[in-house]
Amino acid sequence: MRSGQPRGAFDPASLSNLPVQTRVVLSQLPLTCTTAIVLLETFFLSPEALRGPLLQLSVVLHVLILILCLVVPWQKLHPRLALIIPLVDFVPILLTREGVGGELTALGFLCTFPMIWFAASGLPLWSTLSVAVLAPLVVVWAPLFARGGLVSGVDLARPALLPLIMVAVSLTIWVITGSLRGQRHALEAKEAALQAELNVSARRRGLLDTVMNAVDVGVVAFGVAGEGTLVNDKLRALRQQIAQESSIELFSADTFTDSDVPMFDAEGRTRLEDYEKPLHRAGQGQEFSGYLIRFGEEPHQRMLSTSARVLRNGEGHADGAVVSFTDITELVAALKARDDFVSNMSHELRTPLTSIKGYAEMMAADPQAPEHMTDALGIVQRNADRLLHMINDLLDSSSSSATEVRPAPTDFTRLVTRSIASCGPKAGAAGVRLLNSIEGPLSVFCDPVRMEQVLDNLLSNAIKYSPDGGTVTVRAERTGDGVVCTVEDTGMGMSESDQAAVFTKYFRSPSVRMSTIPGTGLGLAITKKIIEQHGGSITCASRLGRGTVMTFTLPFYTGAGQLPRRLAEQAA
User: Fold this and answer.
1) Helix (H/G/I), strand (E/B), else coil: 90
2) Residue 312 CB coordination number (10 Å)
3) pTM of this prediction?
4) Which of 317, 318, 535 is nearest to 447 (CA)?
5) d(Cα 263, Cα 269) in Å, to the nearest integer?
6) What is the pLDDT of residues 474-491, one digit of tens each?
7) Residues 6+ apart with CB under 8 A from 498
8) DSSP-H helix ranges across 9-106
């Protein structure tokens, strides 16, 4: 039954789905049944007519035709071959009409049944109308000529109305069935298109489910009113894990809500309000990335990084949101363990290294020490200084507290001059020329020791990553309420992806790791930390093979005895 068809209603289109054999039999039955009624009526009106050979022959032919409809495997034959049956039907109709004689009138209208079959068969109109004219004429004219004698024009014209009626009936049936056939084809085309759309939709849904379950993060998607919620397997498993670890009873195993699992801020101390929770924020149209929250109660809290993107309809209005949940508990624990290990090892290494450095300095200061020993002790001192510097960097990077800075009015020009002089030997050995392009004095509010560490790191990197020589230029100028300083080199440069991670701890680009350039990947991370503690900022701009420009800002000292605005805001 078609969609929307009332239960029990007859659907004509359903006949076309019947087997060919059944359709042939059903098409023949109306004529057979009507002929049986004619015979029954003849039995009451003129029983002697039943003994006539013509009527008996017509009964035999009707029975044989019905048997042919039942036994011939029409489904194996060409569909048009079944039209032999309505053509043959005109013969028993002729015999029935002559056999009954004048007892029953209008028996010629039995021709309507085979004509309906013909008109509904889908044959061209000309062939249908030809049969509609010729077959009834044969039925009514053949007996006139068979009786012998003179056949007048009046005799021929008297039954001519029957062919005209058959033409009208055939034309009507042909038009109606053609219209129904066209409607049926249109419906079938629409059903095929709808089924194709359903198949595409099912494939897309399957693809969406596969993609959502293939990613290693929890994902939930929902509409503006919460309808159509999709939750992937990863999120269900994560939710169950959190519930089991914290002994929480979940509302539902198939959805993800903000209300049935306790959520805290990144520190795990402050419970989040509803408006601070990721699903609520996403439902309000907010988009965010890397929003850190903790799920569950101590000591089983898990750290999650959440991100949200708003779904928009064709008009650009919010139509829902997608929120991802990434469990970073083990990553955070691993980073903390690494920092603890680095901090502990750095403390353990610094104590014996300080002793080595001290004893080397004491032995080198002995005036009676041979010259070759003094040279060797100088090498020991330089390497000890280098190791101590690296250990201090490791300690600074692993410390979770802010870098201690003691800002004071400082001559920035002098700091730059001193750093360039300190890096001069290294630059000379690398064939790099150092240029100081600062004109006039510049007073800044900074920790001179820490700022000298910043300049040393930037100059050292510029020299180190100019292996083929080149020029390193330091510039500084006042702008607004601060000082902007740039350290520019003409060295090897870096890609855009490397620039995005250049201030990350322990980061070293793949090309540098494969080279012989030494380093720990901590210098720029520490530099950024020191500058931010001063209330400033640092950026990197670079092109592969064209060099790098490091730019940082510092508060400008006005000499009024007051903290610069950014440091005052930071202190407040």
Assistant:
1) helix
2) 13
3) 0.45
4) 535
5) 10
6) 999 888 778 899 999 988
7) 509, 542
8) 20-45, 53-71, 84-100
